[in-house]
Structures are given as C-alpha cells and as structure tokens.
Amino acid sequence: MPKHTIVTMPGDGIGRLVMNEAIRVMEAAGFDFQCIEGNIGWEFWCKEGNPLPDRTIQLLEKHKTGLFGAITSKPKDEAATELSPCLRDKGYIYVSPIVRMRQHFNLDICIRPCRTYQGNPLNFIRRGRGGEVEEPLVDVVIFRQNTEGLYCGVEWSHPDGIVYDALKSHPNFIKNFSNVPREEIAVSTRIFTRQATERILRAAFGYAVKHNYKSVTVCEKPNVIRETSGMMYKLAKDIQKEFAGIELWNTNIDAQMMWLTKNPEDYGVIVAGNMFGDIVSDGFAGLIGGLGFACSANIGKEVAVFEPTHGSAPKYAGYSESIVNPIAMIGSACMMLEYLNENELSIKIRHAIAEVIREGKVRTYDMMKMKGSEDAVKNGAASTRQMADAIINKIL
Ligand code: NAI
Ligand code: MG
User: Fold this and answer.
1) Which of 18, 312, 387 to mutate to test the pocket of ligand 1 (most atoms within 8 A of CB)?
2) Which fold has domain 1-109+301-396?
3) For the chain, N or C: smaller number of CB within 10 Å?
C-alpha cells in the first residue's frame, strides 16, 4: 500500500498535460504515492450539468489531499448553451468548480510563493542608481484569504425589499445613492469574519517564523475600507504580539502595486483579503516569470488542494507536442509534498528545477520570449515534456 493517496484533478486543456508531467517528476523523486483521478471541469458541466461531481467531492473527503490542474470556465449564458441537449432548461446553473471546492471544504488559506529562480530570462530587471541593470531577488509569499471578502458571492442587482432597506439604513447610501433608480444599482458585499481573518493572519505569521522571514505586510486599504481592511490590520497588530521578532508592515494595495517594481526584494510574507490577495499575488508572479511559474496551495482544516494559478490555456491544448511550461504545476506539487511532510523530496525537485533554469539549456517558449505556436519547438523551445525530462534528469 503506498504511503500517500492523492486525488489528481487534471481538469481541462493544458491542465492534464502539466499534471502528467508533475506526476512523472514526483515518481522520479521517489514519492511513495498512488493517484486517484477526480473528475472536474467543462466536460462534466456539459455531460452532467455539474463541473464538480459529488463523486469528486467524496474522493477529496476521503483522501484529503488534492492536486488540481486547471479548468475552463465560461460566462453563465455561454455555459447554458453548451450543456448537453437533454440537460438544457432544467435549471442547471454553471458555478466555478474551484470556487465551489474552496467554499465546500473551507480551503480558506491560499499560499502563493513568488521566488526568483536565478537565470530565468523572465526575471524582472530594473535600472539602478548609476543606470546599471539590477535583478532583485524576489522572495515573497502571499497569504490570501480564500473564501470571504469580495469573492464571497453575496451580491444583488436591482436590490429590493429588505436588502434595499438595509442599504438605506446607512447615511452614506442615503447621501450618495438614494436618488439612483434601484434597477440601476448593483451591490457586491465584502464580508470579513474575525475567525477567518485571524486564521489567515496566524498562518502568515507562523510561516514567517518557520521560514525566517523578518516581516509580515498587511496589504489592504484600511484608510478607506475602514470596517473590513481596518479589522484585518487591527487583528494583525494584536496577533503580531504572539510572534516576537516578526515586524508588522502595512501597505495599501494601490501603493503596493506602484512599488511592485521599486523594491520587491524588501517584502517577505504578505497577507491580504481575497481580492487584494489575488491582485498582489499576480503582480509579484509577473516579476518571477508569470503564469508558467506561479504555484499555489489552498489549505483548509481537513483538506488541501494544490494548483498552478494559470488556467486551461485552450489555444495551446490541442498541439501535437505540448509547449506550455510545467514548472508552475511541478512547483505546486512541491508545495503538496511539503504539506505532506515530504520535505526532502520537495527540496530535491526544487533544486532540480533551479539547476535546469540556471543552466539555461532547456527553456519553454515563454522563457524564450516567443509567441506561443505549434512551431515553438521547431524554433528551439523545449516542449512541456522536454522541460519535465530535464528536471527529472537533474533529480536522478
Ligand atoms: P490562462 O491562464 O489559461 O492562459 C493565459 C495565457 O497565459 C495563455 O494564453 C498563455 O499565453 C499563458 N500561459 C498559461 N499557462 C501557461 C503555462 N503553463 N506555460 C506558459 N504559458 C502559460 O488564462 P485564460 O486564457 O484567461 O483562460 C483560459 C481558460 O482558463 C478560461 O476558461 C478561464 O476561465 C480558465 N481559467 C482557469 C483557472 C483555473 O483553473 N485555476 C485560472 C484562470 C483561468
Ligand atoms: Mg487570479
């Protein structure tokens, strides 16, 4: 019996292509595991009216650890037209299976590390004081609250009845919106709870201590969004007292994005609510190579799911030889290995990735700064499989 059972959810498009490579790399590193495949994605929406079938939820309930590739999502109306004819007009409504999975299992802690690999031609460079080229070493880990905030889904168009009454109970609403016709109003709420906010903050501080970061930066906007951002910053000040030696910094999301390229090397752990965490993590990912390098973990109390942040990139999914970069997926697998206390295996794989990038002989099309096309491999880019092979060769 293998030591670990992983629910692999390849999903759509390039999700399956990069998943296959991550599995090969983990096997090469000596990970003692078996995979059970869970169905997720567009195919199951079209065939069954549910992109996250109950059987997949049950697999995750049983085995607790998931590795997810990527899915294709489409707007509600388009989704309805692609349903299998026998399911149409029966009340099926498309909901993103990732958002549902995060909420169903309360995967409230999202971790997105953005670390420079030396030798990556996509690394951010800037001009120094004397005009010289500087390549700052970015080593930032973003902790994003994953279930609440502006993505909590509590929204109304044309608010009516008690919802409208509640809005009217606020003096700022009366002042600014009471003359606007109700049918012209849309409202998305930004709900933070104390419990979830404390959990993401403690996770961030705990990580900073464990991994020797000197600071935790709360990246919100407490001067304007006083109730929710304000609550996070206030709780951060309290919680920081439990973590002697870790500094608490406070930046506003807009200023943080402006400073992104000025001093990214100064930041360590960053913590934010759902949307600002999404934004700031994409910003930092851009400094270290973009979607081909951006990995993530979604961690709840019972279940954890690991995934690259990129989507299914359908335009590249049908190539006879896949060209996409598998490193984001393989990095996500490394995060899973660390979660499972298989640190040595993760270090082995990370070193192998670093070595391949440092050598610079094997580079996928994105690293070559090519336009993605079927000809990329002919023009000198490594295929998805060649990149994984190069990593495997460094492990062995
Ligand atoms: P995408 O992330 O799939 O692709 C955007 C572009 O990024 C690609 O065209 C490609 O140039 C590049 N890219 C992505 N992954 C790459 C990799 N591994 N290596 C090299 N280059 C890579 O986002 P897009 O095109 O906006 O969405 C495509 C589909 O994916 C949509 O249906 C969308 O809803 C879905 N999506 C799913 C996500 C998920 O499963 N977590 C996240 C984002 C989008
Ligand atoms: Mg995003």
Assistant:
1) 312
2) Isopropylmalate Dehydrogenase (3.40.718)
3) N
Where the chain has pLDDT below 70, the residues are: none
CATH of span 124-150+191-287: 3.40.718.10
> Relative to the CA of 372, which ligand 1 atom is closest?
11
Closest ligand to residue 12's CA: 1
Please provide the distance, in angstroms rounded to a whole number, between the alpha carbons at the two ends of the chain.
24
Ligand 1 center to residue 343 CA distance, Å? Answer: 29
Residue nearest (by alpha carbon) to ligand 1 atom 4: 313
325 pocket-lining for ligand 1 (C-beta < 6 Å): yes
CA distances from 197 to 101, 203, 228, 232, 390 (A): 20, 10, 9, 6, 41
Distance CA 395, CA 389 (A): 10
Q: Please give the structure tokens belonging to residue 378.
A: 């002919």
Q: Is 98 in the pocket of ligand 1 (CB under 6 A)?
A: yes
CA of 310 to the centre of ligand 1 (A): 4
Residue 223 confidence (pLDDT): 95
Indicate the top mutation candidate among 310, 315, 357, 384 to test ligand 1's pocket, ranked by most ligand atoms within 8 A of CB.
310
For residue 153, the model assigns a pLDDT of 87
Instruction: Return the amino acid letter for 333.
Output: A
Distance in angstroms (rounded) separating the CA atoms of residues 290 and 283: 9
* CA dihedral over 328, 334, 338, 343, signed as positive or negative: negative
The residue to which tokens 């030696």 are assigned: 245
| C-alpha to C-alpha distance for 388 and 367, rounded to whole angstroms | 14
pLDDT of residue 76: 82
Q: How far is the CA of 248 from the centre of ligand 1 (A)?
A: 34
Same CATH fold assignment for domains 1-109+301-396 and 124-150+191-287: yes
Domain ranges of the chain: 1-109+301-396, 124-150+191-287, 155-188
Q: 313 C-alpha vs ligand 2 centroid, how far in Å?
A: 14
pLDDT of res. 37: 98
